[in-house]
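ok so heres the complex, two chains, lmk if somethin looks off
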Amino acid sequence: MNIAWPWELRARGVLNMNKRNIDYIGRYNPRKFYKRVDDKLLTKQLALANDIAVPDLIAVVREQHEIVHIPERVKGRTGFVIKPAKGSGGKGILVITHIEQGRYYKPSGHEVSPSELDRHVSNILSGLFSLGGKPDVAIVEGLIEFNPVFDGYSHEGVPDIRLIVFKGFPVMGMLRLSTAASDGKANLHQGAVGVGVDIATGKGLHAVQFDAPIEFHPDTVKKLTDIVVPHWDSLLHTASSAFEMCEMGYLGTDMVLDQTKGPLLLELNARPGLAIQIANGKGILPRLKHVEAMSSHSMTVAERVAYAKIHFNG
Amino acid sequence: MHSRKPFYILVALLFIVGLSASIYRGVKHQVPFLPGEQVQSWAVDAKISFDGTGDAAEVSFSLPQDPAYEVLVENASSPGFGLSVSDAKDARRAIWSIREAYGSQDLYYKVTLVPTGVTQIHSDDIPSQPEPYLWPATEKSAAEQVISETWSRSASNLSFAQQLMNAITATKRSQNMELLLSSQTATQVFLHMLQTKGIPAREVSGLYLEDQRRRQSLSPFVEVFHNGEWILFDLVKGKQGRPENLLLWERSGHSVLDVMGGVNSQVHFSMLQDTRSALATSIDMMMNNNALDFSLYQLPLEEQSLFKGILLIPIGVLMVVFLRVIIGVKTSGTFMPVLIALAFIQTSLVTGLVGFLLIVACGLMIRSYLSQLNLLLISRISAVIIVVIGIIGVFTLLSYKFGLSEGLTITFFPMIILAWTIERMSILWEEEGPKEVIVQGGGSLMVATLAYLAMSASWVQHWVFNFLGIHLVILALVLLMGQYTGYRLLELKRFKPLAGDA
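and the predicted structre for the whole thing:
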């Protein structure tokens, strides 16, 4: 049968959507801090204030008339990323990896004409991608030079590392690899591959695509569980210190590894998805309960990371 | 972890209040629990005729007051007469008056009655002891003999009355009884004997209700008080208890008809049985009892039908909450399916589905052209709205030309919602491809269809409008589902890979 019994899932500690919303997001994420994670521009500013590395900011487009200035701001760069500050679910992110004579090319090689670029930014400003359709601002960021260790594991896009940080403890991690199906994007629901990563070592554990376990990358046919994420300790530290930065108890941190700058914080997520459990092949609930059961602690970031590496491995 | 006790108390309270308010509605106000229920009603006409003597005339006529029947409508017609209705307790009377009355006069009183199902007549206050009847000297000893004989064979007021009735209606009566019955009617003898013993009793008049009868008269009965209840005795037929279809017309002990200034007065009744909607009947009755002071039935019909639509929304919303929280269906736009379902109610399901698909498909085609024009979002949406209105106009005209009356209902679709749907679908198409458009669009249509099926059920429509308490129950359910932390049905499939090996 293709359906699990509820008690089987409960026994395996699988967190579901309703429980996540009520018992974790509703309880640990104070409403007043939401804008710190929902507004990527604010996240960026906070991160810089807290000595957390982020991709460089090329420009912020707040008004329609500023759109015409984008080409001169990106002049001389190999590529850039345009994203809505308040976008959700990876919507509205446009990646340009190649600029040639004023013409823009997506990672797939498709050309994006200047008027299409204009329209895209205009859509962002009108709030097409933001929650509730509120007017938004567009952020133009520098391209990430991704670490060659992931060569062959990702199709066109940058692999990113998602860590669930609960009350400051990194409890579960996943590497997200883009595929042809996901059009270079690292969002699991769009077809990216998720690889569960051991909190202790950064080594791959399980992999899924479209919520189903897989062993090899669908485009490059490399064995996914062979991956070991480099700079793992530094990633754990970055993620864990995001807790102090935004004061959200149940947090998804999205990071990338830049070849020269090391781990960069891409964005934070107050409503991180549940697929990370499938990627890890286990439920997250026992770990969350473990942290909840701890008496109020005053551990430093380093202590929390060390604690997590002992208790949440495997 | 904060206590959830107050929450559950609130939910339980809403549930109980909502349910009991609905039950109260059904039982007390007799609002039928199912739509289309019918009740029997009786239309009774009383015709009073008398010959005027040329002087001032006053006619006092008792009006029915029977707990077993509720008066729905009553009116009196009496050309040239003044009419007043006295509402004295236990004795409602109509009084016609005229300064001069010559020759034959006819007065009419019409009443529509609905059975209430109450067949027993309870009385809270104990009636005062009647004055003992003074028997004429010639009958006194005979009456006393019969009374003491019967009294010795009885145990209570009730059994005395029963024994007495048996003695009066027996085929072989005692000589004493024959003597008494020679000067008085059986009813009178019975009543007087009870009064002699100080038992509260009174003569009442009843009308047998039979369909399509004319020129009927009232029949005499006696009510005997026993243990807080008036028990009916029919001395003519020798029966105790209330016969079926009997309407007690006069039960205060007074005369049915008093005419001053007229002779040869008489009253005749004709009656007709009728069936009418139980709902309309209960609303009429509430109106009579002034129970409608704060109710939707007071509103003008147009607003009522508006509310009938509005009050369906909680059902649709409940459906959406259920499908999203318990099942886990994805829809585009949270409550868009409810609004589409509301439109389906006007258009009927198949026409609605076809119309919706046609409009969205045409809209998507035109929207794909608009997307090349590189417009600002707000003007693009506005353009789509105008285009949607155009599409609706064209389809309405086309279906009119081809004689498809179903097509005309397409105007009921909410245009702004359609425009947003087209915009979202178009973006979805560009970003995630046509497959996702079909998944989300199909999900929305499925939810809309289910919401439509729930909202179009006639008993649902009946309940949400006539039993407003049901909305508190829906509120309680929605609150309860807002606390549901279990797995959604579709998550059981999604997390299947996690359930397998241990």
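quick notes: The two ends of chain B are 31 Å apart (CA to CA). thats all i got rn
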